[in-house]
């Protein structure tokens, strides 16, 4: 299949990098405000009882897993995280962490949702869902410690493919070690330092979600403004642009392969 690699992230303009850096500092400062106005726990791990959609999502996991399995039949068609979001290049190396985005900060990725319609439908029914994607981690990869930029969202993982050796597969959030189970959701606050390690011989895959943190009226109003600023920033615009480029290149590759098969068929018929 022809190369669908996107241009290296080092080509990003200097001004964009500075804006992102300043924006992340502001968001972390804003975390103190979000802590005061949050209606749920601000601990590293968050109880599933805080969100009434968890049980319904877990019930739909077999259909979601089925769509993921079909995607994994052609792993070369799934981009690495940093190929879509260049700001992740510190924690995403090579093709060890692949992602398949369905929604990016509320922006629907129509091409991907069409490929996984039941998953897209399931996540669309989650109140306050901002981001949804399949997150696929190769064996023997370590996502180094890092922090999310804001406490305005809560991170959810629905376990889909989980190797059995739990001692070699975990996520650390602050001082807590969490484990995945297939068909079960874990919730955590990704503004705490966290890291992931898969030291097994198998890949790990989850449905990765960011959902709005329940806030009081003041917090909700401020977060609404915050989300509008984030959506207008390079942090969101660049991944959406890269996704569009990825799809365009993939379609071109399919056409080229189809044309090559046609030529081979014609040559075979003439021999």
TrEMBL record:
Start and end residues of each Aspartyl/asparaginy/proline hydroxylase domain: 58-214
Region spans: Disordered: 251-271
InterPro entries for the chain: Asp/Arg/Pro-Hydrxlase, Asp/Asn_beta-hydroxylase, IPNS-like_sf
Biased composition (Basic and acidic residues): 254-264
Listed Gene3D superfamilies: B-lactam Antibiotic, Isopenicillin N Synthase, Chain
One example GO MF annotation: dioxygenase activity
The keyword Glycoprotein is assigned to this record: no
Keywords: Dioxygenase, Oxidoreductase
Keyword Oxidoreductase part of the UniProt annotation: yes
CC terms in the record's Gene Ontology section: membrane
Family in the record: Belongs to the aspartyl/asparaginyl beta-hydroxylase family.
Name of this chain's protein: Aspartyl/Asparaginyl beta-hydroxylase
Species of the source: Serratia marcescens
């Amino acid at each position: 299949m022809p190369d669908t690699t996107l241009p290296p992230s080092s080509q990003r303009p200097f001004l964009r990098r500075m804006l992102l850096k300043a924006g992340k500092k502001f968001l972390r400062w804003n975390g103190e405000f979000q802590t005061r106005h949050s209606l749920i726990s601000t601990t590293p791990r968050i109880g599933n009882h805080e969100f009434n959609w968890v049980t319904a999502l877990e019930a739909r996991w077999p259909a979601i897993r089925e769509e993921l399995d079909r995607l994994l039949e052609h792993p070369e068609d799934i981009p690495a995280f940093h190929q879509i979001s260049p700001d992740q290049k510190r924690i995403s190396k090579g093709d060890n962490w692949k992602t398949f985005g369905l929604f990016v900060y509320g922006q629907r990725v129509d091409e991907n949702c069409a490929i996984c319609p039941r998953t897209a439908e399931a996540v669309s029914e989650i109140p306050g869902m901002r981001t949804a994607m399949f997150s696929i981690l190769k064996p023997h990869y370590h996502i180094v410690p890092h922090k999310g930029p804001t406490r305005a969202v809560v991170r959810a993982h629905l376990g889909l493919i989980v190797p059995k050796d739990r001692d070699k597969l975990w996520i650390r959030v602050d001082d807590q070690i969490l484990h995945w189970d297939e068909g079960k959701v874990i919730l955590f606050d990704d503004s705490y330092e966290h890291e992931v390690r898969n030291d097994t011989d198998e890949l790990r895959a989850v449905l990765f979600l960011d959902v709005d943190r329940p806030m009081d009226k003041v917090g909700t109003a401020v977060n609404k403004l915050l989300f509008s600023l984030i959506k207008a920033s390079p942090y969101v615009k660049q991944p959406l642009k890269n996704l569009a480029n990825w799809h365009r290149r993939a379609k071109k590759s399919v056409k080229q392969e189809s044309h090559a098969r046609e030529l081979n068929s014609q040559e075979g018929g003439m021999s």
